[in-house]
Structure formats: structure tokens, C-alpha cells
Amino acid sequence: MDELVEKLKNEIIQALNLEDIKPEDIDPTAPLFIEGLGLDSIDALELIVLIEKKYGIKIESAEDGKKVLYSVNTMAEFIHKNKK
Amino acid sequence: MNSTNYIISKQCVITSNKLFVNNKLIDNYSEINFNEFLKELYHEHIKSYPKYFKMDNLSKLGIIAAELLSDEFKNINGKNISIVLMNSASSLDTDNNFQKTIMPDNYFPSPSLFVYTLPNIVVGEICIKHKIFGETAFFISEHFDEKLMYNVIANVLNNAITELVFAGWIDVFENNYYVNLFVVKKNNELLVNQNELVNFTTENLKLLFNKYCNI
Amino acid sequence: MDDRIFITGLGIISSIGNSVPEVLSSLVNSKTGVGFSEYLNTIYKNEIPVGEVKFTDNELKQLNKIPTVQSNSRTALLGITAVNEALKSANIKNVNEFNTALISATTVGGMDKSELFYRDFIKNKTKGKLKYINTHDCGESTQKIAEHINLKGFYTTISTACSSSANSIIFGANLIKNKLAERVIAGGTDALSLFTINGFNTLLILSRQLCKPFDENRNGLNIGEGAGFVVLESEECVKKSKNKILAELKGFGNACDAYHQTASSPEGNGAVKAINLALETSKLKYSDISYINVHGTGTANNDLSEGMALQTVFNNNVPLFSSTKSLTGHTLGAAGGLEAVISILAIQNNIIFPNINFKEQMKELKIKPVEKIINNFKVSNVLSNSFGFGGNNSSLIFSAV
Fold first, then answer.
1. Cβ separation of B111 and A53 shorter than 8 Å?
2. Which of A22, B30, C145, C259 is deepest in the core (most CB within 10 A)?
3. C-chain residues within 8 Å CB-CB of A64?
4. Chain-wide mean pLDDT for chain B?
5. Domain A2-82, what fold?
6. Which of A18, A20, A42 sits opposite B111 (nearest CB)?
7. What is the CATH number of domain B6-211?
8. pTM for the full model?
9. Domain annotation for chain C: domains and CATH numbers
């Protein structure tokens, strides 16, 4: 699981063009949106694409997306549970 | 049309990895590539606006130029500022990149790219950063049309609300780009630096545009 | 600069009709043009409803007597069709008789063809039909229209997302007010494309059902295609041309929301400014507005933002309003032009068009749209809203004369 969290952090930084942010800077329990990294709605959509692209899991609605994308940990848990 | 009291108070040109403000060469990064150049410009002139890195190249260029010209409008109420931009490629650079994400054998449409597949998003980005709420427009033209530019800017300044217009040409496709943006405003201040101010006329717009074309 | 601007011609093609009379008939019968695509070959063919014009490209060419071999984007063909109708309706036999300009608008341009080229080209650089890419540029469709009607005057292209063709009309009016043109054909055109369907889909704002503007359970927009153009004439020009005046462009306003690249501010600040500017320039009172043709895309964000803006501007007296995108789909860059034509039809026929698919009022708003058509309603002044990505917000006011 830790490995997945680290991998995810790197993938997030790359996918969202988070210049100047290193994986150590991201607290996996912290909220990704509003506070924490302060990501916005387009970032959320891009993360949904990331999950489908790298892990083959499709998120159909913005509502489902909100829960999964709360933090890096919730993303990792979701991927771990649903990975094909 | 009453335009004798309008002046082009500042100009920013970005071309061939060089950045000029009012004839003065501010940056010259001939050794690096375009994307690295855009990064350097950020670290030098913007510094703390991480949203920059999510933008496409058209918006990045617009944000840099706006920053270099922002002294001109920082004390003016945002609702009294208008933006008029023009180019020939529209958002082709990003359209191309987005197209790559909807290939049948590599189908992962990118929302963050799609957001920039409209030429006027650069206007939106400048407005968001500098809190500008006035009239905005984006024209597509094969070449810089100084007559059209003149007429639109003069018309917008002639209404009582707009005090300043941020305007010009901003075009990019892959590594080819030319940015020539300027500020036109009502001339009711004491002119300090006479040499750097130019009367707002169609001929001067053409001259200022062509001056840097072959660099 | 107190010249009045009159509308003397209308032209339209959309999913609900290929001409003004057809569109009016569909509006009056609440007949939607949205459904699964018949012509566009998308992987979402049986999943995502769109507002498609019921003609193939070749049929559009035949309609306009264009040789089938000529390269044309679908955007240009739609534009030519609508402009031809506008000229006919304004009785224009010689487009160069007065100082006439053409202001068109588009976001798709020739992308509907370029994307076909690209798929072959990217795999093998010797493949791909070149004729698909020489119509790519946004300006190309405008040029094709100008050439088709033999226009010698000025023409240009505006591209500001979903407010594009409303801005064409504003720019056209400004040309006339500044005596740079006596007559302007203004509007816009956009065709369906894989590019826009996939793009909007990735933003999760495309509904899998018929869109429900201003409904509590709305879940996105339906993309449409089409073209809408009006002929604007100065007072002096109308005296010379003796054309029948269909309506007056009484006021207009454009403002920037400056909130997000694609979302509107929750309070609809940009919309409030644009609407107020339009009212100011029209010199009308708030209570003079008979009907609002709202932007009303059916997305969670737009309808809430626009609803808030209407409540702010009009306080407790929001005029009757409806979104005709529930019938035509959201025609992107062409929306402003199409809806200008529809607003003028409301004035000419004294009808308030319905906002179909509406069932439940939005909890956050005190207002709801007109659900069923209202006939015999004196429509004196119509406010038409077009709000685009990039925070570009435009409002037009058309008045009966």
C-alpha cells in the first residue's frame, strides 16, 4: 500500500503539472482540494483520467469522484480495492 | 472617432526567446528551448502563481506579457479595463495536443488540455489573475490587422467606462510564437518619459508590430 | 453615437429546422432536435444525445449549389446556408450595394475535417487527405462565406467560446455606430465534431439524457450544431434600402467573470455586469423586459450561476424566461446567433418559447422557467444571454419596433 501511495504521489505531480512540489511535500492524509494542495475541479477531472489510464478503473460521475479523490490515501484505497 | 487623447503607454514583445519592454531587452535565453524559456520567465517575473504550470503555452505567454505590463493597470478599477487580443492560429497548439489524447488506440481525453482549446481562455486567465472585469474580445485574423485593432480599441475607450485597454497579437504553434502586446490608455497624466510614449494611431500600431518581426 | 441599429434579415439552420420557418414551427410545437447522432461517426453514437442538423455535408452543398468536390468544413457549409437565408430575408440582391461587413464567429472551425486527417497522419506521415486540413482555420469558414456571397467589404472572425456569435452582433453594431459599415451580416456557426464531444465529455458535463435547463435534477448539456445570422442596418441604411424592420438591437453588454477558465462564479458576477450593461445601453427599465432567452445550458454550474444573476439584477421581478437549448442543444460558438434569431421570432410572433424537459424547480432559486409555450403574449423586449468559457459574458436586448 505504501508503495502505491508513493507511486500515486509521483503520478499526481506529473499529471497535474505541480511544479516545485516533491512527493515528500504531499501529506497522504491531507485533503487534496480546497485546503492541502488546493486543487480545483479541472484537476479532479484529470485525476479521474489518471486512475483510468494507469489503473484501468473508470469513475463515471463527479459524485463518486469526490469521495475517491478526498486524499492520496483514499485514492490508494479505492485503487487497491478495484484494481483489475 | 475621438482618439487624439489616447496613447500606447507600454509594449511587451516576446519572440525568439527574447523579451522586450518598450524597446529594452529584458530577457535573452537563446541557449534553452521554448518550454524552458517559459519556465525561466515565470521564475523571474511571476514567482508565486502555481496555476501557471497548468496553463497551455498561449496562456503562459499572455500571463507573462500581462505581468510585464501590469504596472500600467494596477491602480485602475478592474471593471474599467478591457482586453482585445488577436491571432491567426487560434488555440491550434493545444488543439493538437488534445487531439493526441483522443486517438482510437490511445483514448484518454484530457480535461485539463480541453479547457485550453479555445483562444480566449488566455484572456480569462489574465482577467482572473489581475481581477479584470471589463469587455473582452478575441479576433482571428490571418495577419495582424492594425485597422481592426485600432477601431476596436478606440471604440471601447470612447465609452465612458473603459480607461485602459490591454491589447495585441499573441500567437503560438509548437515552437513558433510571436507576442506583441501593449497598453492603450487615456492620456490625462503628466507625461514623464516622452520618448517611451507613442500616440495611438493605426500607423503606430503597424510600426510597433513590424519592428520586432524579424528578430 | 445614438444611431439605432435595426435587424432586417434572419437566417438559421439547426437541429430543429433548416430555415427560419422550420425552426419556428419546431419551437411552436415544442419539437426537440436532440437525439442520437445519425451522421457523426462517434463511439458515443448510441450513448450521448446531440442536436444534429439533419443534412449530410453533400446535401448542404447541394442546397447551396456548391460543387461536391470543393473542400468545405461542415462549419462553413452551415454558415453559408444561414447567411444565404439572411440575405434573402433582407431582400439583399447585391451584397455590396451598401458598405457591408461580415462578422462571423466559430470555435470548431474546420476541426470536423482536420480530426479525420489527423488520425491517419499521426500513424503514418504519408497518409491523410490533405483536403481535410486546408479548411481548418477559424477564419477559413468566414472567408468561404464571404466568397460565396461575393462580399467585397470587410470581414473577420470572433472566437470567444459560447459567447462568440453574440459578440459578432455586438461588434457589428459597433461598426455601424462608428460609421465603419452601414450594414453588417453578423452571427456564427459551429458543427459537431469528435473533438468537442470528447472534450466536453471529459469535463463530465454532457448529459446522457435530454438536457433539463434550470431543473433541480439537471445533469449536463447536449451539444448541438448550427448557424444563426442577422442582418444589421443603420437607420440611414434602412431609409435607403427600404427593408422591412424585423426588430431593433436596443442594447448590449459584455463583461468578464474573471473566476475560472470554464466555470462561472457562484453569484454570476460576470453575468450580472453584462446584463446590467445591456440594460443601461438600452435605456430600458428592468420591468420593460418581456422575456429572457437564457444561456441555460443545463449544467449544474451555469444554471445556478445564471439563476443567481437574474435574481440579483431583477430582484423579485424576474421576467418570464426559458432556455431554447432544451430544443436545439448547445450550439457552442453559434449559440448567440441562433438565439438572436429565436429572440426576434419571439418578438415577431408574440410567443414565449418553452423550456422543455423541466420538471422540478431548483432548490437554490426562487424562479423557474416557462414550461409550456405561451401564445399571444406581447413580447416587446427580449434579453438574450450567452456566457462563454474564459468568463466571456455577453447580453443582447432586442426590441419590437
1. no
2. C145
3. none
4. 91
5. 1.10.1200
6. A42
7. 3.40.47.10
8. 0.90
9. 5-241 (3.40.47.10), 251-395 (3.40.47.10)
